[in-house]
DNA sequence: CTGAAAGCGCTTACAG
DNA sequence: CTGAAAGCGCTTACAG
């Protein structure tokens, strides 16, 4: 039988209300009783029942996250560790825990969110997906429940969210390759329905247009966030008569497949083709040669998401901004300078 | 204002008790009232307050995990994703959620566990660490609270746990290398205070002794679970007059550093030296050449941990077994066969 | 088959 | 400064 406030009160010879006030450091309590009650709490090994506390206070001191379902598992898996760590670190620092569940189907996902929100188990929700037409976003808005979206939502532009400026990031990468003298630049993209894919492609196109460089549709390959995707793309790309001298790749793991494909076809990076990828997960510095990659600040995204959501919860003034996490181009050895005779 | 059982009762013209019984599918309720109440619940958008439910039922339907603190962060980080996914998948399947927190110091860790356990927020705890003299293990035993340990505990042998047979795994790897003709086999180990390091080293020694092969202490290097560790070890190892022809490495990431070191020194894998590592995380198939590695079933460990813990909670018969997850040697291209003239 | 009542362990006006 | 009482939203003997 765990010890309750009542037990402590009895031993201390005070009322339960007084014990409760001591716990919450109520100002109008005599230092003497406070000291006594505190001593007895420790002696008896008292610890408040958070569930009971939560029931009356209507606060859980908990944030909720739903794991992405299988379809996007792979993409998110790579980030997952760093991301969750960022979320938990900041949440813990502010005295919040993290409640997690996963949904295999969309309806299971909705069920989990409902359980969290209507079951009063969390004070706020972090949404990992940025799909079009997401019913969870709709639900949370209807409930007027605090939440933050990772990524961008086109339908719900006025929602609290953290994201990268993926258009700008891809633009920056493209411009960098152009500055090295590349004129034929290809793009190995991710699933076209994802906002992140669309944004990066847009930045790439913008940079090419601005520099008056050609943009051929057969230089753009769409795939999954899988090594295989990159690998397979190469047999096509490398056999092109007008093949690109540089490739932008939407993810490090995909880039790894690209490197493998290129190597197997007997070509060299960066001598035959330059590569620049995204996400800067640990793999990117482990390839031969080490890959240049865009660091999108995954840990910081998680950290910031927690922080912004908690502010919303605590100040109860639902600000609806979009927070942009800065990106950084990490230059390694996968890009070569072009000199003019090679350009033909 | 969320709708409560009382609200539903009022509209349905029954008592709250009846509504409660309908929700829990109590047998002695007329199908007619049941149907009516259910209809009204849906109409009113009723969802039970899990906190209130938890207070009276004394069940939270939640498992707790504490994230490892920084010291071991890196080692566990690599597994983390897969591991948590295994835990969550199985927990969700059985209707449980996962509550997470992290502690930077040992006392913060204890605080988090206490909050979970004494605060009645979880029904069981999964312990990720397998340190010596772990106060959290002691606490949970004293509280007689359901928990499962990942790894092995020497002081607490009679505790529910999931682990690999690391002695056997290292033994198997060593025997495999011996079968290829290697006679000088080195070991790049992890932090010596970790049980996993000790176990693997033991299996390695056992196999060598059994085959009457030499075991020199300068063939054994202890380090961290970091790429740098492996990298640094190589300048020493490769300059040995009697340098090993094969190396067992405690982790894929460390092995990556080893490959880098070997390559920079102008040697080749597996021609100059064979490598076999542990954990089989995604990196291992991405190196050049692809690394042979021991698959220790990380996802399955998480999955099994959830499952065993939940059985303990639900059947309330605290069985205290040690569950061993089988390992598999994944043979790739990093080990060469030795022929006799090379052996000298 | 159903309801009234007590209680889970807390908090917090209200009163003194 | 402190206590008695009501209540958070549920469950569950007990009685009928």
From TrEMBL, chains A, B:
Keyword Transcription: yes
SUPFAM superfamilies for this protein: lambda repressor-like DNA-binding domains, Periplasmic binding protein-like I
CDD domains given in the database record: HTH_LacI, PBP1_MalR-like
Residue ranges of coiled coil: none
Organism domain of life: Bacteria
Keyword Transferase: no
InterPro entries referenced in this protein's UniProt entry, alphabetically: HTH_LacI (IPR000843), LacI/GalR-like_sensor (IPR046335), Lambda_DNA-bd_dom_sf (IPR010982), Peripla_BP_I (IPR028082)
Secretion signal, residue range per the UniProt entry: none
Alphabetically ordered keywords of this record: DNA-binding, Transcription, Transcription regulation
SMART domains, per the entry: HTH_LACI (SM00354)
Molecular function (Gene Ontology), one example: DNA binding
Domain HTH lacI-type span(s) in chain numbering: 3-57
Protein name: LacI family DNA-binding transcriptional regulator
């Amino acid at each position: 039988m765990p010890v309750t406030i009542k037990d402590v009160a009895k031993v201390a010879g005070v009322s339960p209300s007084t014990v409760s006030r001591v716990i919450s450091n109520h100002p109008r309590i005599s230092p003497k009783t406070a000291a006594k009650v505190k001593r007895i709490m420790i002696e008896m090994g008292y610890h408040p029942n958070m569930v009971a506390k939560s029931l009356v206070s209507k606060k859980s001191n908990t944030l909720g996250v739903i794991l992405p379902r299988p379809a996007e598992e792979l993409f998110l898996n790579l980030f997952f560790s760093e991301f969750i760590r960022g979320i938990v670190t900041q949440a813990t620092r502010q005295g919040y825990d993290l409640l997690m569940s996963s949904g295999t189907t969309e309806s299971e996902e909705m069920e989990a969110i409902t359980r969290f929100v209507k079951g009063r188990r969390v004070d706020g929700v972090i949404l990992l997906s940025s799909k079009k037409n997401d019913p969870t976003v709709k639900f949370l808005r209807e409930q007027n429940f605090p939440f933050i979206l990772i990524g961008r939502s086109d339908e719900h532009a006025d929602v609290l969210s953290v994201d990268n400026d993926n258009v700008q990031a891809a633009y920056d990468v493209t411009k960098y390759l152009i500055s090295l003298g590349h004129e034929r630049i290809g793009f190995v993209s991710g699933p076209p329905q994802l906002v992140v894919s669309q944004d990066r492609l847009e930045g790439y196109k913008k940079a090419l247009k601005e520099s008056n460089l050609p943009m051929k549709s057969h230089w753009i390959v769409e795939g999954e966030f899988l090594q295989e995707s990159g690998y397979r793309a190469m047999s096509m790309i490398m056999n092109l008569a007008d093949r690109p001298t540089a490739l932008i790749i939407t993810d490090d793991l995909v880039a790894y497949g690209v490197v493998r494909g290129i190597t197997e076809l007997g070509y060299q990076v960066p001598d035959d083709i330059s590569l620049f990828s995204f996400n800067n997960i640990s793999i990117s510095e482990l390839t031969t040669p080490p890959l240049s990659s865009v660091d999108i600040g995954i840990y910081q995204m998680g950290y910031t998401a927690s922080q912004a959501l908690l502010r919303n919860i605590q100040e109860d003034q639902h600000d609806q901004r979009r927070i942009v996490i800065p990106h950084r181009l990490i230059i390694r050895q996968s890009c070569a300078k072009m000199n003019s005779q090679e350009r033909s």
